[in-house]
Specification:
The protein has 283 residues and is of the alpha/beta class. It contains 10 helices and 10 strands.
Length: 283
Amino acid sequence: MQPFDIKTNNLYIHGLKVGSGTEIVIALHGWLDNCHSFLPMLNNSKPDETWYCIDLVGHGLSSWRSDDAHYYFVDYINDLHEFITALNFKKIHLVGHSMGAMVAGLYASCFSEKVKSVTFIEGIGCITTPSDEVCEQLKSAVLKRARLKNKKPRFYKSKQQIYDARAQTTDLNSKQIALLMQRNIKELTEGFVLTTDPKLKNHSGFRFDEAQCIGAIKELTAPCQLILGNEGYSFVKQNLEKYISYYNNLKVINVSGGHHCHMQSSELCFEHIQDFMQQNGAC
């Protein structure tokens, strides 16, 4: 497992590289997570491909956006494209969890010539806002930004205190929480602090509406599979029901586990992903 950092558009994207095969896989984690999300699948395996598990901007060890910038979902498409361009990858496989799955899907819709396959894990389509609620969405974002402006970071007495806080919002066990969160923590003289940009918790100022989401899905030509945890988030299953008919080629797989099923049923998820990529590895 080899750490890397790639400079793109004045931002550094950090991550972990695993394997040395000719097929390239880029793995994208979920909101407020980091590339350690994929370690349970990769720690005890020997992938046939080369995996680049990245920390999305604002997460893990990657750069934060500038003080005057905010986190729009569509900007992650640009970040991913800059990363792929910087490393001169011609065609890649995408594996995404939750928010990372939505980034993977939209990127594949926009740049179909660069994507061989897409594996969604507990995430599909987009989080949308009805067109008649766009002003309320923007107003909420503006007011939330004003409240959070110049807010000082919170310091914790120990890593365990952070692990305990995460345990209140996840079904991961203590070992999995520690594995995931240790990359989101740094120690300063005042105590322990999160490396995730606090602005990630701001309300989004803009979201696609349902028609735009459907329009994007129709452009996705790469083979896709969706891995669902049997105790995963209900909104993922609702999105599947809403959008499944618009996908050109979508395979759906159910495994044991919750929203982080790729950490809980890691071996089975890895097998499904490997098989799917091998079936769709030809240029």
